[in-house]
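COURSE: Structural Biology Practicum
ASSIGNMENT: Worksheet 4, Part C
STUDENT ID: 0417
INSTRUCTIONS: Below are two proteins. For each, the amino acid sequence is given first, followed by its structure token string. Answer the questions at the end about the second protein only.

PROTEIN I
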Amino acid sequence: MSGFLGKLSPTKRVPGNNDLPLFYVNQTSMEPQRSPRSTPRVSATLAELLMNVEDARNDQTTTRRALEMASPLTSSSSFNSWTSAPASSVSSSPFVLSFNDLTYSVKIRKKFEPLSYCGRASNDTAVNTKILLNGVSGEAHEGEMMAVLGASGSGKSTLIDALANRIAKDSLRGSITLNGEVLESSMQKVISAYVMQDDLLFPMLTVEETLMFSAEFRLPRSLSKKKKKARVQALIDQLGLRSAAKTVIGDEGHRGVSGGERRRVSIGIDIIHDPIILFLDEPTSGLDSTSAYMVIKVLQRIAQSGSIVIMSIHQPSYRIMGLLDRLIFLSRGNTVYSGSPVHLPQFFQEFQHPIPENENKTEFALDLIRELENSAEGTKALVEFHKQWRAKQAYDNGNRNVNVSLKEAITASISRGKLVSGATNNSSNLKPSFQTFANPFWIEMIVIGKRSILNSRRQPELLGMRLGAVMVTGIILATMFTKLDNSPKGVQERLGFFAFAMSTTFYTCAEAIPVFLQERYIFMRETAYNAYRRSSYVLSQSIISIPSLIFLAGSFAATTFWAVGLGGGASGFLFFFLTILASFWAGSSFVTFLSGVVSNVMLGFTVVVAILAYFLLFSGFFISRDRIPLYWIWFHYLSLVKYPYEGVLQNEFEDPTKCFVRGIQIFDNSPLGQVPNAVKLNLLKSMSGVLGINMTAETCVTTGIDILKQQGITDISKWNCLWITVAWGFFFRVLFYFTLLIGSKNKRR
């Protein structure tokens, strides 16, 4: 907690506010506590923290200066300038997010099988409609935190998803406006951020590295490297992560930061660009009370810096309740309370269910709601009472009009340094302009590649296991097929070697399935709010995979080519290496595409193994192309194994001067192969007389070209086979991109 504010004295008071203390000392925390009756203070945005940081000459000066600005109360001049402002300016809220009559329902198919009189079951299905949100309304103001509460299944996460544009527009009824104007999806992606309930982070990156990569994604290229580092350092202090900055995130197999620190890192990567609206789905889930309080305290700082913070929370503690500004209680999609926590006792008092004096207000409300849900009439009476109570409150207090237009409010925020990811300020016409992405695609590719390489470099066992599988397979093949001769048996052994070698290259690519599946939700979170383009991700992942594929292909080719005794010399080895590399490329691309379609690792492995088995079956090894039935010939041309297999066969047997069957060797694969050579020579003489050809023991009967014809390999040259294999790899990468484009919308239907 050394990075947070120190203890504060309650002697400072806000003028014109009944002399109420603005802050009071919390004995269990080193942080200032806001009085429930006080108005929210305006904290410096992250951009303002950096305005006085001149290229960060040294880390100590930068950190100290950022800390001083992060807490205006630590500087007397900052505090005096704030307290000298009129109360109306302090309490102004240029941004108001309003949502009215939000309704969302889903259709559920339920299967029932009633037994008939004859004992047979019916397979009829019934379609039921479940209402997840039913006319939910409310508003959230800049500088405040709104919490959505309720039991499990009450609709908390659904409401957050609706406000965060994570529900398809045609499925959600109602309106969502910002300062009275409809909030378009394209603008919302720029001005808002969404923090998922699960902490989706790269396990082998440190806290500082994770935030720095987020800064490189979300902050524009116009901001210097030093400014980005200074922003990250200020954010680390704001999140209270200074002691864990150099610690890796960790996972089940690697010790890392604590649960509360992970949650704050998850928040940090989404607020690096200082968004106007921040959505969080149960940020305190799974945390102890102290960690949960620290997370909400961080969110309070973010809200006070000029943001709207909206979160769902299951059951806040008494201390957390003291930090919240607005509450919405939901019960099975209906609003049963909305307003300030201060008015909660009055609400239930008027509902004839007063909250006992020493009772936790939140626990009492949730217990009462659950009790009503289990009753015969449900919460209908409470829902109707809330509507009447809200109408009365609105009449007594009057409507809180927002006189600041959305354009003016966004322009003012940009001037203060918010929305640094893609917003620019055009003060001449007060019209802010937005870039869809903060950086060009080539910058995104570099950052994605650098992050992936760094994360992989700290997990060398992944590449080591794949290299081990390739090398073990290569050594087994090299020792099994050592120095094959140019005999009919040698031909059959070569065919078997090539078929097994080519199929193995594809099977070893199956390890790529978990790679994207582990990153899937990180990718969806980052691309949902335009951290980078999907095309940048696909291109970057494709490029950074090539060096490892070259290394694997070279290792396999060097292990097997000369040991097996393949022909062609140096040029033959080069083509064999390129074919293995192209096979790795096509196989890796195919598996990557499947990982974008299949969301389960075990299912992915099953599908890959099955499809690759079919590819091998139709490759032409087990049955030549000429003998494949016409109704299956299309699968032969779709087989990924076909093209590298035919390519290496042509590389081996294309020499017309190389003979593989001579004279008496024609009897080797027949029952006559067991008779003495003298008998075979006599048979050759007899055959020569019948055929009119002089056949001796050294007469070449079958060349490599003849073998290719026997295998039905005559329609595509070896280089075309190579290019087709490479093209398959690019084709599956393009399919992977469209899979991400279509399947990663991360929206409910």
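PROTEIN II
(use this one for the questions)
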Amino acid sequence: MSSLLHLHLFLLMLLVTQISAQHTAQTYIIRVDTSSKPSVFPTHYHWYTAEFTQPTTILHVYETVFHGFSALLTPFQAASVLKHPSILAAFQDRRRHLHTTRSPQFLGLRNQQGLWSESDYGSDVIIGVFDTGIWPERRSFSDLNLGPCPNAGEGHEAASGFGGIVGGINETIEFKSPRDADGHGTHTASTAAGRYAFRASMEGYASGIAKGVAPKARLAVYKVCWKNAGCFDSDILAAFDAAVNDRVDVISISIGGGEGISSPYYLDPIAIGAYGAVSRGIFVSSSAGNDGPNGMSVTNLAPWLTTVGAGTIDRNFPADVILNNGRKFSGVSLYAGEPLNGKMYPLVYPGKSGVLSASLCMENSLDPNLVRGKIVICDRGSSPRVAKGLVVKKAGGVGMILANGVSNGEGLVGDAHLIPACAVGSDEGDQIKSYLASNPAASATINFRGTVVGIKPAPVVASFSARGPNGLNPEILKPDLIAPGVNILAAWTEAVGPTGLDADTRKTEFNILSGTSMACPHVSGAAALLKSAHPDWSPAAIRSAMMTTASLTDNSFNPMLDESSKKLATPYDFGAGHLNLDLAMDPGLVYDLTNNDYVSFLCAIEYGPKTIQVITRSAVNCPMRKPLPENLNYPSIAALFPSGSTGVSSKTFFRMVTNVGETNAVYRVKIEPPKGVNVSVKPGKLVFSEIVRRLGYYVTVTIDSKHLVLDDSGAVFGSLSWVDGKHVVRSPIVVTQIDPL
């Protein structure tokens, strides 16, 4: 009898849970065929609220880059709405994540000459930044001596919604306005377009003049991310709608899905919104993600997006761990408090107990009796790096050595720690732990060496920077390129301290951050300069100029390295290379793309007309003869061959280049074939004139499976370049084998 009663109770609880789930409202984004609107309704809003949902549940109405609305609906209501013949798609709102000074010079920008001079520092261009908002009073955002704002739309706060957060926001820690309570948005905005700010530093680190890539460009800031809540698709889509109506020229979005997960383009509001912007001539720069060095971790994969990975710059903030036996281990730190002054303290590694949370120095995991008065070794991962130091401090520790795991390798980023702390690479961490294991009475100190410039080699591909291949369509190489994204100094909010922790009461005008979030606005600012210097260039032409002129070598004139492995980096790591604006201003040739080219690509990957309409807004018809996705006129070439194939196989690609340099120019091809691969180009010479500005060519890639040896990433790499004596227009070539579908 008792067991039967338990069964009944269990079934009753299950039924209640199911009913509750059916009645729990969530945010859904609804794509509507607006041509179906009955004429009786004066606006789409009236139609949506009369036919699909109640006025109180509507969060956003989309009318520019996307046609439809977002609303709070139960799963049952969403399923019911989807049955309506005018509804093309419905998808649940998703939470996304932020992909969290010497860098302008490091890009090849020089005062009073080159691209800064040619573009007047971007003074007639508007950059739209989708992020956590802005702290407008910072010196980096001064409008002193700037002329009138370029022709823009009406200002509004419509894109500062928080529709994705059911129940609203916590106004004790967040502003219900575009003001920045987090700091990330202030940092990215000033990286793209910060004015000159003298005597800038983060508590003495990186002191000098802080400036953005396009110091005179104007900013339109759209708050789509909220402190402790993330960024929601419904708000991001509303920001795209608003930014296009505001007539911005460039959009910078340092946001992604995280964990290397990418949705199909028709279910990805960043891809959908970006298409609407790019189709109207707006350049969209996006961060590649921070899940490197894992392969296939790159996000923001749509071919109309410019996807940016991160590299280091030639500035670092070294610190040393010195053991009592005199051995010294190099690391980094932005600690600015009272130094240890060489005093030795006992070492302890909580992880030797085998308790994972203790090895990671998670909240409440440390025994004060074990760590009091000692320097604690903490493993990186699972919690913010700076939060681990706070845990050590609460437990009575005097310092921290933050040790990378194997997944992070030797990649290091500086942090403004609240206690004396130093981050070290995986190898150094293992050696320190090994010394402690054999010498239980070991002691150590940490020496902080401030700011060091002229670091070589630089750039190297940041360990955290997300890597290719493209997980959706490997025919398109992603990331497109890399830009400075490690230890970047830029403006900061007044609302929180440099670590962002509640316990951090420090105030700083500038902060130093790392991430592809920091790399993305470098490319956004670069696009603003190029748009200003070349107003007639399309977003694809601007991206092409950056990619075909990108650098492959570091400041030691050697091929770029991968920070995590210390081996040579590849196009899966850096795309076309590292942004070099000195050359991008005059690329010679560009690979241009139109809206029709992107539609052909969507047809090629077998999206149907209704699915494509979700992205393009207007109805399309795919050609009878299916195009090939690899023939999208992209500035890189990825040749995919079926794995398991034997003998000789060939693939031929078509590309079209537009001359944007001297009118009468002759280019000859230079081929660096991938190892074990034959590459031929026809014709081998391109002759341009006043009449002939665009020319096409064919690339044939041939492999012999018996002699093809792929590297650890499953590919081999080469390039083709068009050379006229002044310009080198370079495209990477990737050859790989994939399992047939």
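ANSWER KEY EXCERPT:
Q1: The mean pLDDT is 87.
Q2: DSSP finds 18 helices and 36 strands in the chain.
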